[in-house]
Amino acid sequence: MKRKSFLASCLLLMSVAWSATGFAQEKLEKIIVGVAGISGPLAHAFIPKDSGLYEKYGLDVDLVFFQGGSQLIQATIAGGVNFAVTAGPEIINGRLGGSDLTIIGGYMNTLPYSIVAAKDVTKFEQLKGGKAAISKYGTTSDLAMRYALERNGLAPNKDVAIIQLGDQTTRFAGLTGGSVQATVISPPFDITARKLGFNILADMADLGLPYQHETVATTERLIKERPETVRKFMRAFIAGIHLWMTDEKRTKAILGKRLKITDQEILDETYGAYKKLTERKPYPTLKGIEFQLQDVAKRNPKAKGMKPEEFINISILKELDQSGFIDNLYKK
């Protein structure tokens, strides 16, 4: 009799434990986060995933990686993606196209690029009469190259020809092959270039250009209909930034695995470069968005007269900040 009673008690405890576990799993809200590629500037999307922070804040996140921001924007507008981690210009163009996309956080507010030149070019003035590679006209790499040249007294497409070559792997191949004399690349490619003897003419972050390089975005519709979902996501994302800032070992382990970096020096440089560029409190840069709108207006008249505030909704970010959530992370 006692044995039966003992077995019944064990079964009851197991049932309760199973129910509690099932309930905890049911409490996790399923969302889809789209990322415009796998790279250092976009790593902030998978840091919370690989460290368990999304789950900690009540989310079951599927990360979907896209080949660039255009397809990601289309998926977000269609409702197939709940949150997009992508470059600021993508959100601006999507909004100008009539969507309700909005920036809810800006975690990288300047350009992470370096201007890398041929081995025999040590000064910008030596580029005169040469060629500089970008991805495509109107992209961030195009803007970065033009800005750097103008800051150093050179007229794009007059003093230096701007050549469209595609992604940075292709651009770097053009530089090493001698078809161009300079290009725009981001970590860790700049480290590789330096190791091979190429010259870093400028670090764009040091030029002081406000620029909404990387953002977290969603739709106004989702903010209105599911504000608690946005709160959960932003808590987890901000906690991921905190992890990057305070736990070097853990962050490097995630970066090394995701970005397939085996060279310790390159891993160290990649971690340090993006730590330097990341905002602890991810408020968008209004000056940076204004700069981008001015650039977009050269090709799209709809951008003329529009204000940066029309492209952001930071109500939940402000709420979290004012509640002490961000400051308290760094007090622990």
Describe this structure in words.
The chain has 332 residues and is an alpha/beta fold. The protein has 2 domains: 9-110 and 211-329, D-Maltodextrin-Binding Protein, domain 2, CATH 3.40.190.10; 114-207, Periplasmic binding protein-like II (D-Maltodextrin-Binding Protein, domain 2, 3-Layer(aba) Sandwich). It has 15 helices and 10 strands. The strands form 2 sheets. Strands 2-1-3-10-4 form a 5-stranded mixed sheet, with helices on both faces. It has a 5-stranded mixed sheet with strand order 7-6-8-5-9, sandwiched between helices. α6 links the parallel β6 and β7. α5 packs across α13 (286-297). The longest helix is centred in the N-terminal third of the chain and has 26 residues, at 2-27. The chain is globular, with a radius of gyration of 23 Å. Residues 1-25 have low confidence and may be disordered.
Number of domains: 2
Order of helices and strands: HEHHEHEHEEEHEHEHEEHHHHHHH
Proportion of beta-strand residues: 15-25%
CATH topology of the largest domain: D-Maltodextrin-Binding Protein, domain 2
Helix content: 40-55%
Beta strand count: 10
Layout of helices and strands, plus pairs?
Blueprint: H1 2-27, E1 29-35, H2 47-50, H3 53-56, E2 59-65, H4 69-78, E3 83-87, H5 88-96, E4 101-108, E5 114-117, E6 131-134, H6 140-151, E7 161-164, H7 168-177, E8 182-185, H8 189-195, E9 199-203, E10 214-219, H9 220-225, H10 227-246, H11 248-259, H12 264-277, H13 286-297, H14 315-322, H15 325-329
Parallel strand pairs: 1-2, 1-3, 6-7, 6-8
Antiparallel strand pairs: 3-10, 4-10, 5-8, 5-9
